[in-house]
Specification:
It is a single chain. The chain contains five helices and two strands. By secondary structure, it is mainly alpha-helical. The protein has one domain. A two-stranded antiparallel sheet has the order 1-2. The longest helix is centred in the middle third of the chain and has 31 residues.
């Protein structure tokens, strides 16, 4: 059962490719985002994929606890959890990047990472939507 959840799907590879492209653009356009090589950018994209998937699971659980809460105290605790996860997730990404790459990669500061995560999420959503769109065949004329 664990092996089924650990399978690499095609959409995961597409996500990593999208993350590499977006990270490459950030390295080119924002001076505070630094990656020493393409290999480091690729590894950073892989780290971001894993980190964002874990963060998304945590956020989904917190939201489901909020919507399923029956008491005021449970709602308050779930709400505070969500409020802590929003900025806290960015600090986790900064910490994980620093711990994994020890200066070879710098994602800037809190605001740069926030902008990066928003861009990654929106780009991932857009690419997934494009891939899910039904293909339209050109109608043959008689």
């Amino acid at each position: 059962m664990v092996a089924d959840r650990m399978k690499i799907r095609a959409v995961d590879l597409v996500d990593i490719l999208v993350y590499v492209v977006v990270l490459g653009l950030f390295v080119q356009l924002l001076p505070q985002v630094i990656s020493e090589s393409f290999s480091m950018t690729l590894l950073t994209a892989l780290l971001m994929k894993v980190a964002l998937e874990i963060i998304l699971v945590a956020k989904r659980r917190a939201v489901s606890r909020l919507t399923g809460a029956h008491t005021l105290s449970a709602r308050v605790i779930a709400g505070v959890t969500i409020l802590l996860l929003l900025p806290g997730s960015k600090f986790v990404i900064l910490w994980a990047t620093e711990a994994a790459f020890a200066g070879s990669v710098s994602l800037g500061g809190f605001y740069a990472v926030t902008f990066l995560v928003i861009t990654l999420t929106l780009t991932r959503f857009a690419v997934r939507r494009i891939l899910r769109a039904p293909t339209r065949l050109v109608a043959e004329t008689p």
